[in-house]
From TrEMBL, chain A:
Stated name of the protein: ATP synthase subunit a
UniProt signal peptide: none
Domain of life according to the entry: Bacteria
Any Pfam family matching the protein: ATP-synt_A
Entries under PANTHER family matching the protein: ATP SYNTHASE SUBUNIT A, CHLOROPLASTIC
One GO MF term attached to the UniProt entry: proton-transporting ATP synthase activity, rotational mechanism
Bilayer topology term: Multi-pass membrane protein
Gene3D superfamilies, alphabetized: ATP synthase, F0 complex, subunit A (1.20.120.220)
Keyword Metal-binding set for record: no
Keywords: ATP synthesis, Cell membrane, CF(0), Hydrogen ion transport, Ion transport, Membrane, Transmembrane, Transmembrane helix, Transport
Transmembrane segments: 20-38, 77-100, 115-132, 179-202, 208-228
Main location: membrane
TrEMBL record, chain B:
Alphabetical keyword list: ATP synthesis, Cell membrane, CF(0), Coiled coil, Hydrogen ion transport, Ion transport, Membrane, Transmembrane, Transmembrane helix, Transport
Locations listed in the record: Cell membrane; Endomembrane system
Family: Belongs to the ATPase B chain family.
Protein name per Swiss-Prot or TrEMBL: ATP synthase subunit b
Coiled coil: 62-133
InterPro entries to which the protein is assigned, alphabetical: ATP_synth_B-like_membr_sf, ATP_synth_b/b'su_bac/chlpt, ATP_synth_F0_bsu_bac, ATP_synthase_B_chain
Pfam family, one: ATP-synt_B
GN (gene name): atpF
Phylogenetic classification of the source organism: Bacteria, Bacillati, Bacillota, Bacilli, Bacillales
A GO CC term assigned to this protein in UniProt: plasma membrane
Molecular function GO labels: proton-transporting ATP synthase activity, rotational mechanism; proton-transporting ATPase activity, rotational mechanism
Subunit structure: F-type ATPases have 2 components, F(1) - the catalytic core - and F(0) - the membrane proton channel. F(1) has five subunits: alpha(3), beta(3), gamma(1), delta(1), epsilon(1). F(0) has three main subunits: a(1), b(2) and c(10-14). The alpha and beta chains form an alternating ring which encloses part of the gamma chain. F(1) is attached to F(0) by a central stalk formed by the gamma and epsilon chains, while a peripheral stalk is formed by the delta and b chains.
Function: Component of the F(0) channel, it forms part of the peripheral stalk, linking F(1) to F(0). F(1)F(0) ATP synthase produces ATP from ADP in the presence of a proton or sodium gradient. F-type ATPases consist of two structural domains, F(1) containing the extramembraneous catalytic core and F(0) containing the membrane proton channel, linked together by a central stalk and a peripheral stalk. During catalysis, ATP synthesis in the catalytic domain of F(1) is coupled via a rotary mechanism of the central stalk subunits to proton translocation.
Organism: Bhargavaea cecembensis
Amino acid sequence: MNHVNPKWEFLGLTFNPSNILMLAVTCLVVFLIAFISTRNMTLKPTGMQNFMEWVMDFVKGIIKSNMDWKTGGRFHLLALTLIMFIFVANMLGLPFAIAYDHVLWWKSPTADPTITMTLAVMVLVLTHYYGVKMTGVKNYLLGFTKPLAFMTPLKIIEEFANTLTLGLRLYGNIYAGEILIGLLAGLATAGVGGFLGAILPAMAWQGFSIFIGTIQAFIFVMLSMVYMSHKVSTDH
Amino acid sequence: MSLDQFVLAASAGDGILDKLNTGDILATLFFFTLLMLLLKKFAWGPLMGIMDQRAELIASEIDEAEKSRAESAKLLEEQRALLKEARTEAQAIVENAKQQGDAQRADIMETARAEAARLKENAAAEIANEKEKAILAVREEFVSMSILAAEKVLGKEVSEEDNRALIEETIQKAGESR
């Protein structure tokens, strides 16, 4: 279990090549799913096109539950990419983890806080950007004094809290899932008794991890859109 | 573990760039943006296009259906009116025919009755005529026989011409007195 992360230094930046690899794999999988399902598109959808359209409608539903589609439509691509990316990333670490010479190479990229925090910060920065862009600087700044002026410090803290919870919730859930799967895998390889004892909880936990991975992808996108709607809509 | 690194890096303060995976942050952003652009180009854009197209198609189909529904309702109303008209017309025709038939029947009856009356009259006239003729014939015969009888009685020839006039006069008188 005592895996360490690989580490590369390049141009003064620290890279974790395992993260780079898994990000690339995630992107490739997401892209292939989206690419293959949108070939030979017809007005009357069949097969994979149905699936992709369902995903798009699902994301559209998430956005619509938070804001007007006229303002929310521009975040559709962002939300779609986020949910597919995070879902696939969560699933990648489930079937196995590959470690070579005690260096962990294959895992969920979302089991790394750097990546989840990057996504969370990116989303929060985007909410501020669109808040300023769509409601103007004045309204954006006034938004911090609502509903009451003395709550401004809390509102500022909230922004950081939102960022932290958004990123760390995803990381924590996926990382914990991988740890437990790793422990059960360790138990299973310990001996015949261990294998028999581990087989049931391992299967249960894998199933639960699929559930958690799906839910977390949904929650991440949902909260992103909630934060976004707080910034871009004027009726709050 | 990554979390330890992260927390340590955040709290240590010095050499933060060495401990924090700055490269990963940039890589994540890069990969995510790249993925978003690729999806936009290859999946989201075309799919949105086709979904919009479908929405448009459905909207136009609904309009079309609404229009054709109204049209068919109009046509139905028209047909109904036409049918009603035709029915009235048919009824009028039947009524007319019945009337005409009645009239014709009455006409025929009238003609037949008149014809029958005429035939009866004709027959009566003919009977009267025949009777007259018969009486005349009988009278003539009677005259001849009378003359014959008188000849036999008198035993001599009387001029038939003279006596005939006389006898006929007598018979006439007898006929009148009777």
